[in-house]
Write a structure and sequence with these properties.
By secondary structure, the chain is of the alpha/beta class. The chain folds into 3 domains: about 5-125, Udp-n-acetylmuramoylalanyl-d-glutamate--2,6- Diaminopimelate Ligase, Chain: A, domain 1, CATH 3.40.1390.20; about 165-295, Alpha-Beta Plaits; about 305-395, Arc Repressor Mutant, subunit A (Orthogonal Bundle). It has 15 helices and 12 strands. The chain has helices at about 5-10, 60-75, 95-105, 115-145, 150-160, 180-185, 190-210, 235-250, 270-285, 300-305, 310-320, 335-345, 350-355, 360-375, 380-395, and strands spanning about 5, 20, 30, 30-35, 50-55, 80-85, 105-110, 170-180, 220-225, 225-230, 255-265, 290-295. The strands form 3 sheets. Strands 2-7-6-5-4 form a 5-stranded mixed sheet. Strand 6 (about 80-85), helix 3 and strand 7 form a beta-alpha-beta unit. Helix 2 packs parallel to helix 3 (about 95-105) and helix 7 (about 190-210) packs antiparallel against helix 8. It starts with a strand and ends in a 7-residue tail after the last helix. Belongs to the CdaR family. InterPro entries: CdaR-like_regulators, CdaR_GGDEF, Homeodomain-like_sf, PucR_C-HTH_dom, PucR_C-HTH_sf, PucR_dom. This is PucR family transcriptional regulator ligand-binding domain-containing protein.
């Protein structure tokens, strides 16, 4: 539980603090404050700190301030506060502001006239109070997700008191870091654990930031290695974009997403979480290009996920669709996409042609090629069933698409 940089900047009594850089990451959680008394900070922080730089004990020239920003970024601190005044650090060099902004590290200027004892007292007090509030909010959501609560009415009363908007239909998203086993194989336990915790914090910060401004926002809930979003309104494209951002932000680890069907009330959260987790399991197994799976679209994939050997699924796809792909062509998946359109339109050739934006005669020519290359007839119910399943896997896979 923690306070964000943005929330600290809004604390009464700290109005003279000014954000100079890193505005896009003011959502970052501040675990605690730390006053830098050494030349560097890398050996003295663990991630999540708001680091105060005074210049009292050491000469803080431009080179040293740039070093502190770089070390802060590498260590995963929440932000850096530089005290300025006539006696020590007169001003923050523009190069330091530029570097912090490029790296996305919140950089705050504090006048020496604002005493450190006041700042740390206000932040410490707010951290304790906010910790209690956030703990209560996440406790309520955790109870609802597990279905383990004394009374739904009591939960609703607590939620109203803590300003938790529960009476809104929601869809749940489950996320989990992938690649953790590789991390621990390739690094020492100490290095791997540190990298894992920093990545988990980056993931939480990213999710909290992504939710900023969303309608009826609820806190991100962390259950073990699972991160849960409870979203009032969400489009699949939004989540695909989020998954892409996470691939870049969390590398070399990544995170896949599982999306539930709609929960019309908070009493349905346990069911929705189960659906989101099932979708997540499929996403981690099939590793779709979009990075996510929607429970409503899984169907037979939930059965295929139970097959322990992925090679069996790959061979089924090759046997069913392999003859329709031609890597030597400019559009190697043209016939696969044509078959997909036909299946999606229930065999209606006119609607399939419209979906593909081609003439009906062109579609007929492609159908003839599909049947010739596959040795199967589209009138054969068994082939249509096999093709439907193979195409479902294909759409969820990393197979390239014709643009």
């Amino acid at each position: 539980m923690s306070l964000s940089v943005e929330e600290i900047l809004r604390l009464p009594g700290l109005e003279s603090l000014v954000l100079r850089a890193g505005a896009r990451n003011v959502h970052r959680s501040v675990r605690w404050s730390y006053v830098a008394e050494n030349v560097g900070i890398a050996d003295w922080v663990m991630g999540g700190e708001l680091v105060f730089v005074t210049g009292i004990n050491h000469t803080r020239d431009e080179a040293n301030l740039l070093q502190l920003v770089r070390e802060g970024v590498a260590s995963g601190i929440a932000g850096i506060v530089i005290l300025t005044g006539d006696e020590f650090i007169r001003r923050i060099p523009q190069s330091v502001i530029h570097l912090a902004d490029v790296e996305g590290l919140p950089l705050i200027e504090q006048p020496y006239a604002l005493k450190m004892v006041i700042v740390t007292h206000l932040i410490g007090t707010a951290l304790v109070q906010m910790t209690q509030t956030k703990h209560s909010r996440r406790d309520i959501l955790g109870q609802l997700l597990s279905g383990d609560f004394p009374s739904l009415e009591i939960v609703r009363q607590r939620a109203r008191h803590l300003d938790l908007p529960l009476d809104v239909p929601r869809r749940l998203v489950a996320l989990r870091l992938s690649g953790v086993d590789t991390l621990f194989r390739e690094h020492s336990p100490e290095e791997a654990e540190r990298a894992l915790q920093l990545t988990r914090q980056r993931l939480l910060d990213h999710l909290e930031n992504w939710q900023q401004g969303r309608v009826d926002r609820l806190p991100v809930v962390v259950q073990g290695d699972l991160f849960v979003l409870l979203l009032a309104e969400v489009e699949r494209d939004e989540l695909a974009t989020l998954a892409g951002e996470l691939r870049q932000d969390l590398a070399p680890l990544c995170a896949f997403l599982g999306l539930s069907a709609r929960a019309d009330s908070c009493a349905e959260y346990p069911r929705a979480l189960l659906e989101a987790r099932q979708a997540l399991d499929v996403a981690e197994g099939l590793r779709p290009a979009a990075g996510l799976c929607d429970y409503r679209e899984l169907g037979v994939l939930r059965l295929l996920r139970a097959i322990p050997e992925r090679t069996v699924i790959d061979q089924f796809m090759k046997d069913t669709l392999g003859a329709l792909s031609d890597a030597g062509r400019k559009q190697p998946y043209l016939l696969v996409e044509t078959l997909d359109a036909l299946i999606q339109e229930g065999g209606n050739a006119l609607r399939a042609a419209q979906r593909l934006g081609i003439h009906r005669n062109t579609l007929n020519q492609r159908i003839a090629r599909i049947e010739n290359l596959s040795g199967q007839s589209l009138d054969d119910a068994q082939f249509r069933l096999n093709a439907s399943v193979a195409l479902l896997i294909w759409r969820m896979s990393n197979a390239p698409r014709h643009q």
